[in-house]
Amino acid sequence: MQPTIINIIGRGNVATHLLRAFDAVEGIYPTMVNPHTFEGLHEDADFTIISVSDNAIAEVADKLPKLNSIIAHTSGSTSIDVLDSRSEPTGVFYPLQTFTKDKSLDYSEIPFFIEGSSGEVADKLMELAGKVSKNVIKADSGKRRALHVASVYACNFVNHLWSISDSILKENGMNFDVIRPLLKETLNKTGTMSPHDAQTGPARRRDTNTINSHLDFLLKSNAPQEQIEIYNLLTSSIIQSFKE
Amino acid sequence: MQPTIINIIGRGNVATHLLRAFDAVEGIYPTMVNPHTFEGLHEDADFTIISVSDNAIAEVADKLPKLNSIIAHTSGSTSIDVLDSRSEPTGVFYPLQTFTKDKSLDYSEIPFFIEGSSGEVADKLMELAGKVSKNVIKADSGKRRALHVASVYACNFVNHLWSISDSILKENGMNFDVIRPLLKETLNKTGTMSPHDAQTGPARRRDTNTINSHLDFLLKSNAPQEQIEIYNLLTSSIIQSFKE
Fold first, then answer.
1. Shortest CB distance from A226 goes to which of B155, B163, B237?
2. Average pLDDT, chain A
3. How confident is the model at residue A244 (pLDDT cuts 50, 70, 90)?
């Protein structure tokens, strides 16, 4: 079998983890390429993956020498068109995960979202992603945008609610750790039923006594106005979502 | 060592899991007691745990015969005063977890929140909880209310955001499974840093281009009005929480 050579342009978290993931695959030879000097670049690599911050992709794509390679970026929120200045085949190679440099990850679980400038290019990128992950999905910019919006609700907004929860616990002499087992179980539940079916709590039960007691608690403990607005809006949204 | 006898009054999820948890401990003999007929009741049990729905606790407490036992209920959102009709020592024995009958759980991880009608009673209930869990916390009604409010934000509201995320993914031909690895990692992160420090996403970066592109997406895909309001409110709350 021919060896597969990959240029990974970048030095950040995603680049580091892609290098590590490909390094573990037999027959794949990834090299980390300096995004400023292009030191380490193989002109005849099979794939060149630009893994730099979103607003630096265009500049790197402009400055790259002519290659005999598929060129793809790793940004979920950037169109494939950012690579339009290239004459090579192009694509998107987007791993959906929050990467931290020093933390090891099970790459086989990470979903990869793939787009190609042609069907053939998409197939080659999907095959490459399939070497590290068992979860490879073809997704154009529109689908990736939907995915990004969905993950803002599911992760960024969720993390903010955890932050509010953490501050309420701390103010009352408790620690976020007391709530973590419940959180894990709530997340596990979504593996066996839809989040909608798994919904519990006072809003789901339309338990206005408890809801009022909670609002009373928030007012008396001088909670920030946004916390109260969030309580009200999410409560009414849950009630709304269970209306016939 | 004296055997410890426990009446567990109830037939629901919490009662079932408490029975299972205590059954596994040497020297502890739990019995499930019918909450209507009190069949199976030991009058000289060391502990009698009323584990019925919140609004049935008072009735069960009224009807129970005189016992030689500490009597505690398992409700996080009910005051210890609901047991005031009793002449026995009373308490609260509240495990913070979402219980499903058929699902096995690691009880040692579940936090128990304990209150007693006296310090001595609280100590006995804490000792009992310590037989199944390594995470036992003394908490009066005020502290339990704070905990309940915090868990509404961290679990119920979070689950609703997952439900919104799920519906956006489904409408775009994807499945909630694609987002689960990211969720797990987001949750893991809160084990090593506070949720506030772990916050990422467009609102955290004040990336108004992305925020506007997401709102545009929601409008064009005819998202329910609440979804857009939630996007706006949580975005501005995140921005607010990172203001100096």
1. B237
2. 94
3. low
- Between A66-80, A195-209, B100-114, the lowest mean confidence (pLDDT) is in B100-114
Q: What's residue B77's pLDDT? A: 83
Chain A contact probe: residue of B55, B214, B237, B242 with most A CBs at under 10 A:
B237
- Mean pLDDT, residues B189-193 taken together: 88
- Cα–Cα distance list, A69 to A8, A18, A19, A26 (Å): 12, 17, 17, 20
**Phi/psi at A130 (nearest 5 deg)?**
-65, -20
Chain A residues within 8 A of B100 when measuring between CB atoms: 189
Contact criterion met (CB < 8 Å) for B183 and A110: no
Query: Residues A87, A68: contact at Cβ < 8 Å?
Result: no
C-alpha pair distances (Å), B208 with each of A124, A142, B200: 35, 19, 14
- DSSP class of residue A99? -
Left (φ > 0), alpha (ψ -120 to 50) or beta: where does A209 sit? alpha
pTM of the model: 0.85
Q: For the residues of A226-240, what is the DSSP string, one character each?
A: HHHHHHHHHHHHHHH
Q: What is the dihedral of CA A116, A118, A123, A129, to 10 degrees?
A: -10
A158·B183 Cβ contact <8 A: yes
Q: How far is B198 from chain A (nearest CA, A)?
A: 8
Do the beta carbons of residue B112 and residue B95 sit within 8 Å?
yes
**A179 CB within 8 Å of a chain B CB:** yes
Strands of A28-33's sheet in order across: A28-33, A4-9, A47-50, A70-73, A90-95, A112-116, A136-138
User: CA–CA separation, A115 vs A74, rounded Å?
Assistant: 10
- Find residues 12-71 of chain B whose CB sits inside 8 Å of chain A: none
